[in-house]
Amino acid sequence: AQVQKLIEQDLVxxxxxxARASHRLKEGDAISIKIPPAEPLDVVPExxxxxxxxxxxxxxxxxxxAGMVTHPGAGVNQGTLVNALLYHCRSTLSGISGVERPGxxxxxxxDTSGLIVAAKTDLAHKHLAQQxxxxxxxxxxxxxxxxxxxxxxxxxxxxxxxxPVKRKQMAISERGRRAVTHFTVLQRxxxxxxxxxxxxxxxxxxxxxxxxxxxxxxxxDLVYNRKSxxxxxxxxxxGLKGQALHAKRLSFVHPKSGEVVVFExxxxxxxxxxxxxx
Length: 278
Prior knowledge:
Blueprint: H1 2-8, E1 12-14, E2 17-18, E3 31-33, E4 52-55, E5 59-64, H2 81-89, E6 113-119, H3 122-133, E7 138-146, E8 153-157, E9 160-162, E10 170-172, E11 180-188, E12 192-199, H4 206-213, H5 232-238, E13 245-253, E14 260-264, H6 269-277
Parallel strand pairs: 6-13
Antiparallel strand pairs: 1-2, 1-3, 4-5, 5-6, 7-12, 7-13, 8-11, 9-10, 11-12, 13-14
């Protein structure tokens, strides 16, 4: 992502000329890259409620509430998890992900609750990012789907990329990157299914896109649910603060001790009430 930004800013040159991302390199080409100085951090620390599950000198694991954005982005620079982490951790967050995403190794969608880990040191960040990339870190989610899944368990292996028209959305795409989600049905209701999803890959909106592909979108998903529960009005009626998707379990090798650590977060109250009502 950083290299793409440099290319867009005409800071990557091939044979003395600014190059586009589509340029095909040939043997003997001379590539020069100008890396601008680090931008000063302008994200303001905020004293926001933070449910810390675990913390040491290397990392912090948080149970994020639905409705909280992970990091600042277009039009959002306050009230994010990063703002809260900057206040809580003071200056001890990894700088690898840039000034707007200090410490952030992976992310959760705004309306998804559950476990997320942030790195305090660059060493921990690299270690955790490598585990995510090599699929050694394990992430398990609980979701309520609108519709009935026939199979008791299964795997969705469908590539995900940017939607060809709606650029803020993702979609099943042959040009996308491989995405694999394993699911197990925990309970079936009259019109809904409670499932556990285990990520093998970590693409943007992966579970939401894959479940919608199975015609069983996540309840309360305002983007990919085209059925009766995919609206703000439906969320209010169901008592949901976000979509019915929760990152329940997270495990990885601790970057300092080398031991496997496992964390779990109970379902938020709104999701518990929804399941009880079903």
